[in-house]
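Still learning folds. Look over my entry:

…
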Amino acid sequence: MTTEKLNICAEALRRHHFETAIVETTQEAFELMKKCIGEEAPKIVSFGDSITMRKTGIIDWLRQNGDWTLLDGFDPAMPRPERLEIRRKALLSDLFITGINAVTTQGTLHWLDMVGNRIAPVAFGPRKVILVAGRNKIVDNREQAEERIRRIAAPQNIARHPGFRTPCAKTGVCMDCNAPDRICNTRMEMLRCHPAGRILVILIDQELGL
């Protein structure tokens, strides 16, 4: 991945009304997110699961700060129904943070989700959304984005969740299954940001996440 490709991607995103920044490290991403949160002064904050996001350290910082209510739907000590209820409430948070499965140099964003708790707040609800993505998530077009999700993101994601019984859990290859544990259920692509600037996309010049 070249710096030129990162810049092409960022410029395309800006043309599509996403607020966009390129940073070199997860620490720089962390500082930028803190700055954005300070400017937004949210009362309620939530997040969707993302390895890249967690690598920045933002979740630990959010949990330690008492300036807002943090809707944390990922506490393993909670029963699953309680965690899902918290994630549902995240739709009405003031600020939401998560990652992206693929970003194209055409300026579009792509996801594939199991229950949709990560993508629903991105589409509508929270007044501000912050998305983080490593340079390895950048592809040229929609077809490559879907292929990346099928070949990389989905199989590797299922591998980090022991107990899921799907063909890709055994083979590491997407089989377009109909298994009860299937995690590839809801696809979303975002072509433009509306209203303009509602979503901040932070591109990190590192290989991060799935």
Observations:
- The chain has eight helices and ten strands.
- Strands lie at 19-23, 44-47, 69-71, 95-99, 102-104, 109-113, 128-134, 138-139, 186-190, 199-204.
- Helices lie at 3-15, 26-40, 51-55, 58-64, 80-89, 120-123, 142-159, 167-171.
- The mean pLDDT is 95.
